Amino acid sequence: MQHFVDEAVITIQSGNGGAGCVSFRREKYIPFGGPDGGDGGEGGSVIFLVKQNLRTLYNLKLKKNFKAQNGQPGMGERRSGKKGNDSIVEVPPGTMIYDYESGKLIKDLKETGEEYVILDGGKGGKGNTFFKTSTNQAPKFAQPGLPGVEMKVKVELKLIADVGLVGFPNAGKSTLLSVVSKAKPKIANYPFTTLVPNLGVLNVADETLVMADIPGIIEGASNGAGLGIKFLKHIERTKIILFVINIEEENYLEQYDKLKFELKQYSKILAKKDYLISVSKIDIADSEQKVDELKKKIKKDIVPFSALTKKGLNDLLYRIKDKIYQVENGETKR
Question: What would the pLDDT profile of 257-273 be if each residue is shown by its tens digit?
Fold first, then answer.
């Protein structure tokens, strides 16, 4: 995801309907035949299509205008005009479409393969054949096609995942994601290695789960500090949150409370979301003592693990699976 984009404003326009045709039969022995003008073709529609392989709205930054094709005019011999081609706007799962002027949500697109016709094309006009009556055998008029519709929309992406990783920079979230899935996030021993959200797919007991990693949160994030606040919306739709506490840092006893505070300040949705607490990097020498101290302080269940040695990883994955099952079945227990 070199170009991760989660918001875009685009202009969309459906096609005009084709005009109906004014035509009369002109055959060798019928010089003054009746009307045979065909109808105009319908204008193309604007359709949003959810594509599984997309993870960003970058394509909407490159192309900001989507216009469907106009319908073709009708022709003689009662031939209808061809329908205009639709304009397809491809987006990732989790895309929300808003009316740019009012801010009203139009559609929330979650399922891969889902299609949503946001603007219908203009209807084609009727040819003069349609207007023939017993009192008007030779109508010399036809309908024009109806115009298409133009509007501006804001498109916003909120990634869809089962579990979202939340922690301070350098907590080991990206390493965890890379070890339990096939995701290849950038990993290094300095803050803000992760600059954009990453998704990884993991298998636990024949079940497939999606894990989302966002840039690390720092104190003051809810007031705009750091990178993590910009991407917190991407874990609003996760089923659970996994707090990752870095036991290697001096402030390991305060990390959980500070992370909870920042989430609460940012969003009521995140503040109420079910969660698990994990401790990373338990391969360091005094990890057991520190884990015990943390348990006594926060009085919560903690799942320790090391992505380096893989100690505790299986337990962590099964705990994640069980917690998601509880949430899905209304058996939430924090």
Answer: 988 888 888 888 888 89
Pairing of strands 303-304, 163-166: unpaired
CATH pick for 1-157 out of 3.40.50.720, 3.40.50.300, 1.10.3720.10, 2.70.210.12: 2.70.210.12
Residue 325: both structure tokens together:
């099952």
Distance of CA 133 to the CA centre of its chain: 53
Whether the pLDDT of residue 304 is over 90: the answer is: yes
Q: DSSP E strands: which ranges in the chain?
A: 7-13, 46-50, 65-67, 87-91, 95-99, 105-109, 115-119, 150-157, 163-166, 198-204, 207-213, 240-246, 275-280, 303-304
CATH superfamily placement of domain 163-328:
P-loop containing nucleotide triphosphate hydrolases (3.40.50.300)
Give the integer Cα–Cα distance in Å for 95 and 59: 13
Q: Are 274 and 327 a contacting pair, CB within 8 Å?
A: yes
Q: Bridge-partner residues for 153, per DSSP? A: 10, 99
Whole-model pTM: value is 0.78
Domain ranges of the chain: 1-157, 163-328
pLDDT in tens, 192-230: 444 567 788 888 888 888 888 877 665 554 454 445 456
